[in-house]
Structure to design on (181 residues):
């Protein structure tokens, strides 16, 4: 009988804490160095605006990395930002998220862009994320994916003159350029 060599969430919990982001997708370990300034600037500015809107409208909760999202024993990721609506609050535990957030946001960086646009897009679609944003802080630009019949589908490509908005947050908008200025 062959031995399963895929890494699990238990293995993940034993990895050292050295400032690098670690994720397991289909049992394979991905290690990424800490992000650079444009990435962190965009994450912080979006997280503040999104958190303020969600909190003031009592819609749910917003979290920033590092915070584990456990989709399965072999799939554990740390999105840059995530939103969990009140309706999905049952996926939130004291330790991590056990299931799909409503929204996942990945701010692209040189080391993660390809994975964020391919492997993670498929992963988030497979496990039921309703909306996925990829944000390129160097444009700035963004791609918005929403759940459809076949999983996540691209519904908008935004440029620096556009604003982020979503049916998940009626009335919320943030100009992309405000994330990087």
């Amino acid at each position: 009988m062959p031995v399963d060599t895929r890494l699990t969430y238990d293995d993940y919990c034993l990895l050292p804490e050295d400032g690098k982001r670690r994720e397991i997708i289909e049992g394979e370990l991905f290690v990424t160095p800490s992000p650079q300034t444009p990435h962190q600037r965009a994450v912080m500015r979006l997280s503040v605006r999104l958190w303020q809107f969600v909190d003031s409208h009592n819609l749910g909760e917003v979290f920033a990395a590092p915070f584990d999202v456990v989709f399965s024993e072999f799939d554990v990721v740390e999105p840059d930002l995530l939103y969990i609506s009140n309706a999905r609050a049952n996926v939130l535990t004291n330790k991590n998220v056990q299931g799909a957030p409503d929204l996942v946001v990945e701010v692209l960086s040189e080391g993660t862009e390809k994975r964020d646009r391919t492997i993670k897009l498929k992963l988030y679609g497979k496990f039921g994320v309703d909306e996925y944003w990829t944000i390129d802080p160097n444009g700035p630009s963004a791609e918005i994916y929403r759940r459809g019949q076949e999983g996540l589908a691209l519904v908008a490509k935004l440029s620096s003159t556009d604003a982020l908005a979503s049916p998940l947050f009626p009335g919320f908008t943030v100009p992309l350029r405000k994330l990087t200025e």
Q: What stands out?
A: Helices lie at 9-13, 37-56, 113-117, 119-126. The first strand starts at residue 21 and ends at 25. The CA atoms of residues 46 and 125 lie 22 Å apart.
